[in-house]
Amino acid sequence: MLFQVYGDNSFYQLIGWVMVFAGLIITNEIQRRSKAGGCFFFFVLPAALTAYFIAIYIGAANGASWALKNPTYVHMTSWFHYAKLYAATAGCIGFMMLKYKKGIGKTEWFKVFPFVIVAINIVIAVCSDFESAIRGSIALANTGTRWWLSSEGVWLYGGWWNVANGVAGIINIFCMTGWWGIYQSKKKDDMLWPDMTWAYILAYDIWNFEYTYLNLPTHSWYCGFALLLAPTVAAMFWNKGGWIQNRANTLATWCMFAQVFPMFQDYSRFSVIPSLYADGFMKSNIHPTAADPRAGGVVAVASILINLAIFAYIVKRAKAQGINPYKKEVFKGTRDFEEAMARAA
């Protein structure tokens, strides 16, 4: 079992998952179908939140009790959360420019932006994975256990699984093909990347799920399961070719919510922890006394094997067609690709 979803809170845990999944689906539809909706979520709301974050840290620096006790200040202090929030938001803005062909979104060279921003987001996560592996090794040498306490007071269990998944993330970057194959949909409601078919989505989802499972354990029920499934479902059923736009929209939305309301996933009836915490979750100066890393290890192996398999598949298709898979679209002729292209302007 991956998660501890049972007991008195299981009903709330399941309802919480449904609320997050449905909320992300709905907000994504507002963001992609309405220019006003996109501008509100990716310009107005981030600007307001930035002012809010600055106010909190200024208040904390001056010793203000309201700031020092603020949930964002107490529970969301890691560099990763802020980097992810603003990187994802930058991606959404860039995708809107491409979708509506505004400013540099009209240029040919800017079509490579989706690859660049996704690669940056992956590298951020890979660095975090390697950091956990290193800190786990240091903890093992110093204390005899792999538990290490993050800046947010969450005990993580760093090991070879982090290294394996970090390598899978690097491979995943090279699984992105057809960098310049970016299109505007006929209805102008989507930025399409047709070469990002089910093959890449599978490789990315398994890698990213494992990343969250290992490094954001108290959030992974939501950001590693509901958050990944929402854009994938949309891309599979009604938004062919729009997966990367769905992913950026839902990721930015979730990051904003989680940054302001961390207690929802951390300490409430809706909180869910992985099976790693064999004796339950502990947030204190004493690390958990038992760990069950088997699930994380199995998923890490699956992550690197699936990414290697997809990369090999890409190389095989590219050789058969005699093309560079990054300059040209390697999945042309497949069902997913053709269905996405049918929506392109």
TrEMBL record:
Segments passing through the bilayer: 12-28, 40-59, 79-100, 112-134, 154-179, 219-238, 295-315
Taxonomy, superkingdom: Bacteria
Keywords: Membrane, Transmembrane, Transmembrane helix
Pfam family, one: DUF5692
Keyword Transcription regulation: no
UniProt keyword annotation of Electron transport present: no
Coiled-coil regions listed: none
Protein name per Swiss-Prot or TrEMBL: Uncharacterized protein
